[in-house]
Amino acid sequence: MADPKILESFPNPAPGRDYVIEHTHHEFTSVCPITGHPDFADITVRYIADRKCVELKSLKLYFHAYRNEGIFFEAVTNRILDDLVAVLKPRSMSIIASWKARGGFTSVITATHTKGRSRRRRS
Mind telling me the catalytic residues? Predict the structure, then answer.
């Protein structure tokens, strides 16, 4: 399982301004928990920082930690959002996971957080 302790940050160089930071990782892999087949995705992290920004090498290592993990698309997308929000406490953040075709399907999962409220329902 990917450990959020891997994630590092640095001070936002312009904390008084809202500006969009977007990072896309084109080599994300995990494993289908049903078939054991590999799943491939482009993961885009789009956010407006508050006091902290994510350090990219740590983000890459965090993403690579999912390589052998059996997890559904929806679960991994929401876990990434939860982990990054916990570390960075951004003003807003979206994780867009664009999954490659397998079995005739492509899937896009988007999870969003806005400071003060999360759009994720807990049951």
Answer: 32, 39
